[in-house]
Each structure stands twice: as structure tokens, then as C-alpha cells.
Design brief:
CATH superfamily of one domain: Probable tRNA modification gtpase trme, domain 1
Distance between the termini: 46 Å
Pfam family, one: GCV_T
InterPro entries: GcvT/YgfZ_C, GCVT_N, TrmE/GcvT-like, YgfZ/GCV_T_CS, YgfZ/GcvT
CATH class of one domain: Alpha Beta
CATH architecture of one domain: 2-Layer Sandwich
Strand order of the largest sheet: 10-11-12-9-3-13
Radius of gyration: 20 Å
Strand content: 25-35%
Mean pLDDT: 96
Keywords: Transit peptide
Order of helices and strands: HEEHEEHEEEHEEHEEEHEHHEEEEHEE
Protein name: Folate-binding Fe-S cluster repair protein, YgfZ-like
Helix content: 10-25%
């Protein structure tokens, strides 16, 4: 146990593998829906790329622009298989000596190993930075006010970052949603400052609900190499550049974009109370019979005791509006709105 996780335990947290909880799932989901929450993002891990070749190295491997990334910017990005299937999705930002990649902690070791295979003669070092930095999420209507009260720098616009003299970095995902990357030894006091300024402590599932409602997917172990970027709406949230050079899977991603062959999209769905669901579970629809029509991507508890999820589905199946979980006659799902248009 680290000083950061010990601090969380003293605050009443229950710690699991890559997860933290402070209260019952429905209670935390209610807080995520009505208040401003501060969440230790233990389900995310960090890979650091350092060295003079960091930008060029990563640019040749990932789906989004790196060479032209502004020093104060952050971007959604992905690492894909040669077949164009997403191995990892991540939030990337430049640092003074390279770049940081925040991705699902359960796939970090394998992704780090795979990326390291491409280093060869490049002047770049890749490392797990989880022991150096702690990530905290802040989301809700009072988020900007709480950041300022806690003395944390406020970025000027969405997908921008700001850094203070102590190395505390704040990334703005949206007007009410931020990720803070802080030196691990100062994470405890920083979290306390957020709570003192009015944030409510909440766990991993509460943050996952925020991300589901924002339509921001996270690739985890059960969904690796299942989806092409556009199936996860990645070009709609700014996670793909179609003007950069080649990278693994680029031909498939570009062909999907320009030949109009995309038949699946990511949707938001509701799952009734009392039904178990997990990422990677198959979904069914009458127009596909016994054949899977899609899969769950991310799942989070909702305040009513049910679940909300991001799901990749055949667009034709959603038009009919009848989607079932786990089997053709499984529990019916309800389609919910996303905060952006599916074009």
C-alpha cells in the first residue's frame, strides 16, 4: 500500500484491484448526478514517454496527432492492431521531457511491453509512471469553483491543460469535468483540499458513470482488439487524425472513414435493476437473430439501482429499438441519448 492509498483508506475508502469505493453504488451514482465529486482514478494507469524522440516515436504508432500537439493541449488517442482494432484508448498530454498516456490500469503492463518493442534505436524511454503520479477526477457543476478554491490551475478551454510550480497538472475534459495529475507524495493533501472546497468523495464507479454519460469510452482487457476507432465514436470525440502519416491500423481506420462502410456505432443504454452486466458481454437484436449485434464497452451503476453503459451496436438494430443483453431473449435494454450527434 502506498502513501496515497493509505490516505484513502483513512478517509474510509474500500480498496480493490484498480478500484476504490466510499459508499454504496447507487449512493455514489446519485452524488455523480447531483453534486461535484472528487474521485481517485485508481482504475487508470500512466505510461510516460521521455526523450528527444518521444513525439516522433509516438506519432508513428497512434491514431491522433502528436508532432503538432501544442504544449498546453491534451488529446484522446489510441494504439491499434495492424487490423485497425483498438488495443488501448488513452488520454495523452505533452510534458516537459516527453508525453504521458493515461489508460486502463488492467492493460497497462501488456501495452507498455508492446510499445517498447517499437523503440529500437529511437531516443525514447517508456516507463510505468504510476508510482510517481496520482490521478484524481473532478466532475460536477461546481468543479471549476472548487479547483480555484483548492489552488489548482484552471485550463482555459476544453482539452487544454495547466500546470503549477509544484507540478500539479489539471486537464479539462469539459466545462464540468477535469483530471488532475499530481506528484504522488502530494496527492493526499490535494484530495483533502478538494473535499474542503466542497467536493464529495466518490469511487471508481461514479467516475465511470460520468464517462458513460459523456460518451467517452475506455478500452479494458475484455474489449481489447474488438473495435475499430469509429465504432467507439473516436473520430467524433477528436481521437483520430486523418491528416497524419501511417500508424498501425491506419489503412483500416481511413478506409472505414472514407468508404462509408461503418455499420456499427457506440450508443448509451440503460439496464434495469437486478441485472448483471460487464464489459465485453454480447448484445442481440431481432434483425441479427442468433448472431451478436454488438458488445458492452463500459458499465456503471445508475442512481435508480440499475446500470448505464456504452455499447457498440449495429446501427440497423438501434433503429428498430429492440436490444437484448446476453442472449436473443435476454433482458431488454433502453437506448439513451449521448451528448454529441452520431454522424
Amino acid at each position: 500500500m502506498t502513501a496515497w492509498t493509505e490516505h484513502l483508506a483513512h478517509l474510509g475508502a474500500t480498496l480493490g484491484e484498480h478500484a476504490v469505493t466510499f459508499a454504496e453504488p447507487a449512493t455514489e451514482a446519485h452524488a455523480a448526478s447531483t453534486a461535484t465529486i472528487a474521485v481517485p482514478l485508481l482504475h487508470l494507469g500512466l505510461i510516460r514517454s521521455t526523450g528527444p524522440d518521444s513525439a516522433a516515436f509516438l506519432h508513428n504508432l497512434v491514431s491522433n496527432e502528436v508532432n503538432k500537439l501544442e504544449p498546453d493541449a491534451a488529446v484522446w488517442n489510441s494504439f491499434n492492431s495492424p487490423k485497425g482494432r483498438m488495443i488501448a484508448s488513452f488520454l495523452m498530454w505533452p510534458e516537459a521531457e516527453g508525453h504521458a498516456l493515461a489508460l486502463s490500469a488492467d492493460i497497462l503492463p501488456a501495452v507498455l511491453k508492446k510499445l517498447s518493442m517499437y523503440v529500437l534505436r529511437s531516443k525514447v524511454k517508456l516507463a510505468n509512471a504510476g508510482a510517481e503520479l496520482a490521478l484524481v477526477g473532478l466532475a460536477g457543476p461546481a468543479a471549476a469553483t472548487i479547483l480555484q478554491a483548492a489552488g489548482i490551475p484552471l485550463p482555459a478551454a476544453d482539452m487544454k491543460q495547466a500546470v503549477d510550480e509544484a507540478g500539479v497538472r489539471c486537464i479539462r475534459l469539459g466545462a464540468q469535468c477535469f483530471i488532475i495529475a499530481a506528484p504522488a507524495d502530494g496527492a493526499g493533501p490535494l484530495f483533502d483540499a478538494l473535499l474542503a472546497a466542497g467536493a464529495i468523495k466518490a469511487g471508481t464507479a461514479a467516475w465511470q458513470l460520468v464517462m458513460v454519460r459523456a460518451g467517452l469510452p475506455l478500452i479494458t482487457a475484455p474489449t481489447q482488439e474488438e473495435f475499430v476507432a469509429q465504432m467507439l465514436n473516436y473520430e467524433l470525440i477528436g481521437g483520430v487524425s486523418f491528416n497524419k502519416g501511417c500508424y498501425p491500423g491506419q489503412e483500416i481506420v481511413a478506409r472505414t472513414q472514407y468508404l462509408g462502410k461503418l455499420k456499427k456505432r457506440m450508443y448509451r443504454v440503460a439496464i434495469a435493476a437486478g441485472i448483471d452486466a460487464a464489459p465485453g458481454m454480447d448484445l442481440y437484436a431481432p434483425d441479427f437473430g442468433e448472431q451478436s449485434a454488438g458488445k458492452l464497452v463500459n458499465v456503471a451503476p445508475s442512481p435508480d439501482g440499475g446500470l448505464e453503459a456504452l455499447a457498440v451496436l449495429q446501427s440497423s438494430s438501434t433503429e428498430a429499438g429492440e436490444i437484448h443483453l446476453g442472449a436473443p431473449a435476454g433482458p431488454a435494454l433502453q437506448l439513451l441519448a449521448l451528448p454529441y450527434a452520431l454522424s
